[in-house]
Amino acid sequence: MMGFGAHDWVARHADHQPDAMALGCAEDGRRLRWRELDHRVGRLASVLAGLGVAKGDRVALIAENDPRVFEVQFAAMRLGALFVPLNWRLSTHEMAEICLDAEPAVLVHDATWAAAATEIAEKAGVARRLAWGLPADEAEDYEEGLAAADYRDPRGTTTLDLEDPTHILYTSGTTGKPKGALSTFRTLIWQSLNNAHTTGYSQPGCHQLNVMPLFHAGGLHVMANPILYFGGAVTTMTRFVPDLVLAALTSSAPPVTHFAAIPLMYQAIAAQPAFASADLSRARHFIVAGAIATPELLQLWADKGTPLQPQYGGTEMGPMATALDHEFGTLDKAKAGSTGRKAFHTDIRLVSPTGEDVPDGETGEIWLRGPSVTVGYWRRSRDDYFTGDWFRTGDAARRDADGFYYLAGRTKEMYKSGGENVYPAEVENVLSVHPSVADVSVIGVPDPRWQEVGLAVVVPVPGATPTLDELCAFAEARLARFKLPKRLVLVDELPRNVTGKVSRAALKEQYGR
């Protein structure tokens, strides 16, 4: 593969649209134009090089959402180093374990996470730290370093290759040690192209309000990096605060055109008193992912003139693998639980446990291949996760005759009832629509007759006490009888892990016996 240097996104947009907005900060109103961002990235690259960072080295970061997170990412990419954002929802011990695996040359952090960064650096043996918002004697000062550094110009150099890795994004360690999924220049570019077809990132004037944590692919790669690749703008917000988000969606300049969140966030925004009169007419694409949105939530936002766009994917998958385009009839598909058709440049197979492709209407494991799919995991064998060119996701889905996909959960969560495969997420998607159900999770539990049966763990809406018979009568029109739960527990809340997902392990520990 021929080397390249001129394909540096920041330098390209600095040359072609120097005065256009690139990055913003919702909290303090900072704005960076592409020319300014390029100057800061070029100087930061020199600072990192002075701290010993070279091509192939790792640059770890722990910080709140801030435009400087993107500066660190782009400076590392300009050097050919790998950007490793740390999930601050993990314990310092877990983050130190990640750094022991990635072996970063430097740890970059903000004042908020200074204590954690100090502990992580000590445990993982990271000798150099670079920070903003701290006294100079506690770490190398980020802003002072930029002010004194020379600009590193990528134009005309040929030191990098499209196959060179750019990111290590560690997946949640709820089922074992976290694994570092690798991105490359190539996978980032093809993910941007995939999204250009479904979410309009190549159109002029794109501006994302980003409230998703920038240590996740959902924060970095679903919207932000593709929008920046095409020369749009991204405004960061430190944390999700529903009324502040709604105000930013309606009053930001330039106007917010793109937004991504999980269903709970969209529910919280819609619950704000100002939502009824909010003007969202400038919105183009609002992605909903991370869970299946209820039909009521989808209809609520559609009635507002801003239909939500369901997507499916994951850190290793691009991350977008399927998306629901805004076209005639797709709202009904979304309300039925579909996450859309496959991404343009991604191939999908649905595979049975015996390795055969399943027909439309039947459930199989999702296998993916394509130029946006991860090339593998940091320091792990591809053979553990790939069959040839196909990445085995561990997720299950079915496909209808029109090519729309419907998630059925994780293959490891599947249980057998009377010899039939049952995927809990498929059952949950149906039960969650019941008017007495606020939240629900389904697990398989032992049964002397059927081997296993479904236990529905339900958080009822205030004042409601749904019965098992009532829930099954509601669900039997959409589910086969063997998929209907045979047991029911009502609880005040469901246990969740550090990423906010329901902890099935905790449910199995409590109820699985």
TrEMBL record:
GO MF annotation list: ligase activity
AMP-binding enzyme C-terminal domain span: 426-501
InterPro entries: AMP-bd_C, AMP-bd_C_sf, AMP-binding_CS, AMP-dep_synth/lig_dom, ANL_N_sf
Residues annotated as domain AMP-dependent synthetase/ligase: 11-378
Domain of life: Bacteria
A Pfam family: AMP-binding
Keywords: Ligase
Protein family membership: Belongs to the ATP-dependent AMP-binding enzyme family.
PANTHER family: ACYL-COA SYNTHETASE, MEDIUM-CHAIN ACYL-COA LIGASE ACSF2, MITOCHONDRIAL
UniProt protein name: Long-chain fatty acid--CoA ligase
Organism from which the protein derives: Pseudonocardia eucalypti
